[in-house]
Amino acid sequence: MLHTMLKRGVWLIGACALAATVDPAAAEQGGPFASLSPDNELARYTPQSQVKGSLKIQGSETMYPLLSRLSLEFQRRQPNVRIEVRGGGSSKAIEEFLQPPLSKTGKVMLKEERSQYFSLVATSRELFDSELKEFVAQHNYEPMAVPVAVDAVAIYVHKENPLTALTLEQVDAMFSSTRLRGHKTPITQWGQLGLSDGWTDASIQLYGRDRKSGTRAFFQEHCLGGGEFIPAVHENPGAASVILSLSRDQLGIGYSGLGLESSIVRAVPLAEAAGMPFVSPSPAAVADQSYPLRRILYLYLDKSPKTSLPPAAQEFLVFLMSQDGQQAVVKAGFFPLPAQQINKSAVALDSAAGSAPVRR
User: Is the full-model pTM beyond 0.85?
Assistant: First the structure.
């Protein structure tokens, strides 16, 4: 009986009930770590003046709810600043960010065509070395990188799946065709991971993000060792879409941002390698960096050393690094940055701002 249900690939509770349980918008803005608090060392945001300007933040789908929350909280304190937040994926935004400046293309832009927004790129991974070199080749200076929050990628399964833990080698053997982590054979059935009874011969269904996603690039680099995905991975356009797909498929396993657990799916403990401890993606494990898929979420700015940041952008970054800004990070379901990392970024922002120091 169980085996027959597993072969169908859908747990027969009813798609409508499942969709209601795992609402994409709620999942994106959720997060089980609401009790977290920013570091007490951080200063409160106390604007010394009201500024004006327009910002456009574009990129990571994972960061969309985070940046929407940050923008909302900031605009409550700076109502004369307009902020437009768009998704579209980290990879697409980075590709546009690396385009040569108009001065190199020879194109002339009419005044009415010029954007009045100062642009920031949201990415759920660091720029690769090749991307940094490409930007420097086009601009003769490096982009400015500003950490926003701490996040992690989790491996999720349906709550009825009895899988207890995985090594990254096993994850690689499921999701990649290259198996650069060393597993000798592909893992395609749940029985290969020790599951018995009706699970033994059941095929593993894989879920992940599409090619526009920075989460996909991060997963490819850190889990697959830079290897290639197998074509059988069902690609989804958003973080919550992966969770919704898994909620409907008891045979499924997939990767997505942390904090998207629901009553239908759960995150699997991971070990960096065989023989190492399995670690659940708990707040403590992410904070002490023992969880293997921890990451930093970034904003990248095209800022020449010869120019100052627009006041609106400068003030938004000051807010981001304040206790109020990091509290907004927590409310959005992400982990706050350590004070040490914020202080390092604030020093860099001081330098970029010239005579206008960051308030710490």
Answer: no
